[in-house]
Amino acid sequence: MNVRVQVSMVFHLDKCIGCHTCSLACKNLWTSRPGAEYMWWNNVETKPGTGYPTLYEDQDEYHGGWEVKDGKLQLKLNTRAGELLNISYNPRLPALDDYYEPWTYSYDDVTNAPPQDDQPVFKPISSVTGKEMDIEAGPNWDDDLGGSGIYAANDPNLASLPDQQREQLLSVERIVYFYLPRMCNHCVNPSCVAACPSGAIYKRGEDGIVLVSQEKCRGWRMCVSGCPYKKVYFNWETGKAEKCILCYPRLETGQAPACMHSCPGRIRYLGVLLYDADRIEETALHADNELVDAQREMILDPFDPEVIRQAKANGVEDHVIESAQKSPVFKFVKKWKIALPFHPEFRTLPMLFYVPPLLPVTGTSNEEGLYDTSSDFFSSLENARLPIRYMANLFAAGDEDQVIRIYKKMMAGRYFKRAQSVGGAEDASIAEMLTEAATTSEELEEIYELTTLASFDERFVIPPSSREAAIELVQITLDRQEGGGMGFVHEPRRGL
Amino acid sequence: MQTFFFVAFPYIALILAVGVGLYRYFARRFTYSSLSSELVEKKYLFWGSVSWHYGITLILLAHLLVALLPAPSRLVLGNHTRLVVLELTGIGLGLYCLFGIVALIARRLPNKSAARSVTSPMDWILLLALGYQAFSGVGIAMFERWGAAWYLNTAVPWLWSLAILHPNAATVTGLPFFIQTHFINGFLVILLFPFTRLVHVVSLPLEYLWRPYQVVIWNRDPRRKQLPCPCQASAVPASAPPPLEPTDEKRRRSLTRIGILVGGISAAIVGIPSLAFLLGLRKAPREWRPLGAVDSFPVGQTVEVSFADASPLPWAGVTAKTAAWLRRDGPAQFTAFSINCTHLGCPVRWLPTANLFMCPCHGGVFYKDGTVASGPPPKPLVTYPVRLNKGIVEILTSPVPITTV
After folding, report:
1. Neighbours of B99 (CB within 10 A)
2. Do the chains contact at B215 and A312, CB–CB below 8 Å?
């Protein structure tokens, strides 16, 4: 057993209201500078939708992540030699148009306009070329299902749905959507790291944050294609790759990352997970339908004396183990098993987890336009408004049982608390429901506590850092906004 | 002027390439990047970048291989069929390259192109220099035929003389101006190397072929003894754990120092001899070499003689020998002609039936006395001083078999 530490996160999607405050906090802090305007290290997508960059989940197109070939784990992108041969032109790189061309406005046209009969206007100016442009796409162009006929209809996760279900999803009366905040998953088996020819991307041993060394990066762009989540970006100004740094300068000083701190819906939880690094490859080699369980197995119980002993032998400090025991992420992922990784079939073992949204409380309506209100507690799951199959494609590599198990537990929690506060249910039927959802009233109380009443310190259990030992900690990264906080000693401007 | 372009300029270019390149690597490594513009413009980049990079890599390797291994190259290129095949391949690759660089320049030209907005002034200079290099290379291949052969007799000795710090530009100063611009522009590209994105050439990540997929970096040694928690400070024994060494910081600083030192040494190795040359401290050695007894040369006949070069490279092998045409005009009168054509240095042949020297490369013809009869050669064949010493014919060598002085 080789115990390592991972700073990890849970998104409670039921609570996300799609306000994009997280994205803006991140943008203001890190990516509002030349070359990075188009980057959203954190973004919030409307699902169903094609996302950002468009169709990023379609790995037949982008070849991100891993695949199992002859029992071995291989990059889907290319062989090592093949990558080097493609180094002058990467055929799998998304173009700027797949994100969007960033722009500003010619505000001077208005502020400096002379007195005139007509109202002055300003024009959109491309941030790349500095010339006037026509806006054809922008961040969250498909927000709240805007243009759903183009965007939502082409969501790659809908491909395996029966035609009838897909059509229902787009019909006006039954339309449904939810929000999906996305950022770097700080994977345990990152394919961006593996795809980088320069060896510039690395995972920090102490906390598992994946970072790009700006000094070592030579701009070969393989990480952008290698990451199946398209969460590594190419800065066209500096010619370097950039990505979410999990706000490590904030984490190391005991503050929550900006996206989490600013979240009005309080959907985010942060804490430490312990995992067994010896089992990484074996875990990623599992069949699609076993991946979620295998990853849960890889994550270790911080209360197990053997785990604690091995962790200490590996140099994990006592107070880090302590924070692993208090970690809200551990509870959601391993203890209650109600949080799932995003697209586990990419086999990068992503370490950010999502509690799937309970939005299909009411099922699909029948032909008379009536909802199914049968007394059976969970009947509506089978014909849920957003098909279970779709959620399984997103969060469980297509394994519907994983999602159903979670939904049952969450709905049981809802009925249970409702019976407590407004009554209307017999004790016997509640007990029956708890059995069917494989849970207990104690567990549901705990989930309820952490979901609805938790304070800041319960939602963010940030492990203390050792200032005297960390290197990146002591670098001045916040001396200017344009410094990017990435340990730049020099101005982040392009070389000659 | 010729000395400046063929002796001083190459050294200046090399010193700056190594010195500034190292400085930039150690002091401003952040600026090392291929500065790809694929993100903003992908369509035309495919045609430009792929053609250029594959073409130039192969062409450059061919140039280097011939220069590094002159003796085997001479053997390979000695056969006419092989020479034709290689020349045609070269022209093909050259055109492939030229197409690539033209596409790379063209995609940055349109005023509204996104690629143009990510182009710095140094990018333009570099693109023009590379463009001219590809253009002149293809031009030479087309209009100054058999470059693969004459390159060996002209540019290679010159490059070697530069490499062994014994510069001698004699073999290239007489070449046509168009060919010379290819040489000078080549060193201009070397000069531009540390000041442009060209530095990405030296960071080709071959290490990727064998390094493990995953990279995990610890800021401190994970197996290191645990630090006492501050809250238990009172429980810590008086002998506190030894202070942690910031080893990485130390290593960085010493690596920087080593880098500057290595850079300085390289600059000195290259710089001092070239300065010495410019100040005229070094002279090329010339020696008398025996060719054979006087009686072994019949009067009136022109024969090929070979003798050892005065300052051969230690590993020159058979190429340390050079040749000349020797004619006995009278009992004690000898004339020695250089074997190299004054046009581009190909070896001329004596045709006794025609009483002419003929050059196989571009059809240069010389009369019996070495003056030009027809063809491109600009000057008569060079003659070597010859003397008689105790019944032995001796010839005065020149540092390299030169054609035009």
Report:
1. 17
2. no
